[in-house]
TrEMBL record:
Protein name: Iron dicitrate transport regulator FecR
Organism, as annotated: Chitinophaga parva
Transmembrane segments: 97-117
Lineage: Bacteria, Pseudomonadati, Bacteroidota, Chitinophagia, Chitinophagales
Alphabetically ordered keywords of this record: Membrane, Transmembrane, Transmembrane helix
MF annotations from Gene Ontology: sigma factor antagonist activity
InterPro entries, per database record: FecR, FecR_C, Ferrdict_sens_TM
Length: 397
């Protein structure tokens, strides 16, 4: 259905370009564009916007005197479709149609939008020197052995990087480490892996379970598991694909909780001070609290803010988007969206004036520089950002 919808819009653009009626004036173009910004323009109207922009040869300089000048190009229109303010819950499901439309609109657009953006938009609006760094710091993924020795997995080549307690840790490729058990020791050693800002990492444990560790996270684990249980300890965020074992529960200890599974897949997000979110994709898990235990079913999320415990439905595509190099948010507070960006890039985002409880829905790629991600948010017209010597200040409009 998505492919058919996309082809329909592309066909509409083709018909508009080659079977045009009366030309649209600049005033009509701007009126329709304002409809688009208000969310009242349908897909056909959006296609007409792009088509008539080409037809009238509306070069960027024609619009510089208009308040909409910095967002009038087709590329920015597509970007506005991809990141929009959520006016109702469930916005991301509606955004899937918008992404299909945006992809069609973006076809055929040249480099003029890119040139315009970088030539005419001054991100350092105060005139102060820009911050020295807008990309994640040059840090490394570290493997810490039981004796305290640290090994940089960012610098190591393929092959065995460590051996202990009858196991071998082998780097398969960049960002992937696999543990295999060669023999059994009296007691397994404990290792840990820590990821820096801006980088994730994948780990395969000796039981075959896989762990995808998000940026700024640490996983502590035994180099092999015993006969009765499988326990690991998490700080940060990780996605678990647990190898089934009816006699050995797999338990993730995180903050004040223990998430127990026999064979399933789930995501745990525990970045202080925003609480813990445990989301189940397949199978079933038990979320164990000091005074309460509950069972999660696929598509459910358990949320604990340190004082209150709730369960709610979750969009698993949003929850796991970080594994595919994206920030994704579905009716999320702007403050939480910015917190995710701050954590990924390791750069301080200072809240200026405005309401940071406003809700947003959309997807933004993990760009190399945080400026590129903030520009996508700024295109919604709901906020502005400013670079200073120490940090980045966000102002909600």
């Amino acid at each position: 259905m998505k492919k058919i919808s996309c082809l329909y819009v592309c066909g509409a653009i083709f018909l508009i370009l080659y079977y045009k009626g009366d030309p649209m004036t600049e005033e009509e173009f701007l009126a329709r564009y304002r409809q688009f910004l208000d969310g009242t323009l349908d897909a056909e109207g959006i296609a007409e916007l792009h088509a008539y922009q080409d037809e009238m040869q509306l070069e960027d300089q024609h619009w510089r005197g208009d308040p909409l000048a910095h967002t009038i190009t087709g590329l920015e229109i597509a970007q506005r479709l991809q990141v929009s303010m959520a006016r109702k819950p469930g916005g991301l499901r509606r955004m899937r149609w918008a992404r299909a439309v945006a992809a069609c609109i973006a076809l055929g657009i040249g480099v003029s939008a890119y040139y315009f953006w970088h030539s005419h938009v001054n991100t350092n609006r105060s005139g102060a020197p820009a911050v020295a760094r807008t990309s994640p710091p040059a840090e490394k993924v570290w493997l810490t052995l039981a004796n305290g020795r640290k090994i940089s997995l960012s610098d190591a080549g393929k092959g065995v990087v460590a051996q202990s307690s009858g196991t071998s840790a082998q780097l398969q490729a960049k960002g992937q480490l696999t543990y295999t058990q060669d023999a059994t020791a009296v007691k397994p050693d404990t290792n840990s892996i820590s990821t820096p800002h801006g980088e994730s990492f994948a780990l395969t444990l000796t039981d075959g379970s896989r762990v995808h560790l998000n940026a700024g996270s640490t996983l502590r684990f035994p180099v092999y598991f015993g006969q009765d249980q499988r326990d690991v300890y998490l700080q940060g965020e990780a996605f678990f694909e647990v190898n089934a074992s009816a006699t050995r529960p797999f338990t993730v200890h995180v903050q004040e909780q223990a998430i127990q599974a026999l064979g399933t897949s789930f995501n745990i997000k525990a970045f202080d001070p925003r609480g813990t979110r445990s989301t189940l994709l397949t199978g079933a898990v038990h979320v164990v609290m000091p005074e309460r235990t509950l069972v999660l079913h696929p598509g459910q999320q358990a949320y604990f803010d340190g004082a209150h415990f709730t369960t709610r439905p979750a969009d698993t595509e949003v929850v796991t988007a970080w594994m595919h190099g994206q920030f994704a948010f579905d009716n999320e507070r702007l403050g939480d969206v910015l917190a995710d960006m701050q954590h990924w890039y390791g750069i301080e985002l200072v809240h200026g004036t405005g309401n940071f409880n406003r809700r947003f829905t959309g997807r933004i790629d993990h760009y190399t520089h945080i400026e590129d991600a903030l520009k996508r948010l700024e295109l919604t017209g709901a906020l502005r950002y400013e670079l200073t010597q120490q940090h980045i200040v966000i102002t909600v409009l």
